[in-house]
Amino acid sequence: MASLAEIRARISAQENKSGSKGSGSQSDNSIYPHWNMDEGTTAAIRFLPDASSSNTFFWVERQIIKLPFNGVKGDSNVKQIQVQVPCVEMYGDSCPILAEVRPWYKDETLKEMANKYWKKRSYLFQGFVRQSPLGDDKPPANPIRRFVISPQIFTIIKSSLMDPEMEELPTDYMRGLDFNVKKTSKGGYADYSTSNWARKESALTEAEQAAIEAHGLFNLADFLPKKPGEAELRIIKEMFEASVDGKPYDNERWGNYYRPYGLDAPTSSVAEAAPMPVRTAPAAPSSLPAWEDDVSAAEAGFTSPVVVPTAAPSSDKAQDILAMIRARQSKAA
C-alpha cells in the first residue's frame, strides 16, 4: 500500500503535469447510493485501500462520454436515447472523440456542443458505511461497499490529503479517518461542498476487520469499462459521428458493442468483429444532476469479479518520507 507521502507526491506530479498543458448484469446494492440521501443528512464512510498494489491511490478514475441520439432506427416510439462509451484517455491512449472535440472550444458557437461530448469523470472507492441516513438501504452480505464519487466530493478528498495536518493515511486500519458525506442544496441541485473528514482518528472495529479477512478488498480497476480494442474504437467513432449528425441509434449495427439501457441486443449484426460486453446508459434524462445521472448506470453491464482476500497492509514509514519531502520543499523555497 502506498504511503501518504507517496500519494501526495503523485497528486502533486499530476497537478504539475496538468498545469503545464494549460487550460450485461444490473448494478446491485454493493454500491452505496449516497445521492439518495435527504437534504441536510450525513453519511459517515470509511474508505479502504485498493487491493491492487500497483495503484498508488485508494481510488480509480472513470472517464465516460455520453452520446445522445434522436431515437432508435426503425422504432418511431423512441424519441431520445443516450449511450455511454469509455473514453480511452482513461487508459492513457488518445481518444478519437476528444481529438475531434478539442478544436471546437476555439469557436464560441461550438462550445455548447463540445461540452455535450466532453468526457465525464467520476471516481470509484471502496469502504464501510459507518453511519447511513438511508432507512431503506439494505447492506449486502459483504459489507465492503463501493462508492461512485462526484468531482465535487473528490476535490475535497484530494485537497485534504495535501493538508500537512493529516499525519496518517485516512485508510489506515488503526489510525484512519471517516469521511462525512453531507448533502445540502444549491441552486436547486444537490450540493456536497460541506463534506469533510472526521476530526478524530479511529480504528476499524473487529467486525470490519473480520469482513476484510473474509471477503478481501476489491481490485477497483476491475470495475472500470473494458478497454476498447481497434474494432470498438471504430464503432465508437462511427457512433459519435452519427450522434453529431442527428441520426438515430442503429441497434443492428452497434447493439453488440454499446447500447442504451433497456434496449435488447440485436438478433443479428452487421458488425465485423466479435461482440464485447455491453456498457449501457439511461434511456432517458432523469431529474438527477448530470454526474448523478451517469452514476445511476455506472455499473450496468459490469460483472462482479472474484475477490481474493487481501491481508491488512503493513505500516509504511509515512512520517519519515513526508518529513523528507517537506524539508526539501522548505529548502527549495
Helix/sheet category: alpha+beta
CATH level 1 name:
Alpha Beta
The number of helical elements comes to: 9
Unreliable segments (pLDDT under 50, ≥5 consecutive)?
Answer: 20-27, 269-326
Total domains, how many? 1
The CATH topology corresponds to Replication Fork Single-Stranded DNA Binding Protein
CATH architecture: Alpha-Beta Complex
Radius of gyration: 21 Å
Strand content: 15-25%
Biggest sheet statistics: 7 strands, antiparallel
Provide structural commentary.
- The protein is an alpha+beta fold and 333 residues long.
- It has a single domain, classed as Replication Fork Single-Stranded DNA Binding Protein.
- Helices cover 28% and strands 15% of the residues.
- The chain has nine helices and nine strands.
- Strands 1, 2, 3, 4, 5, 6 and 9 form a seven-stranded antiparallel sheet that branches. The chain has a two-stranded antiparallel sheet with strand order 7-8.
- Helix 1 (4-21) crosses helix 9.
- The chain starts with a helix and ends with a helix.
- The model is unreliable at 20-27 and 269-326 (pLDDT under 50).
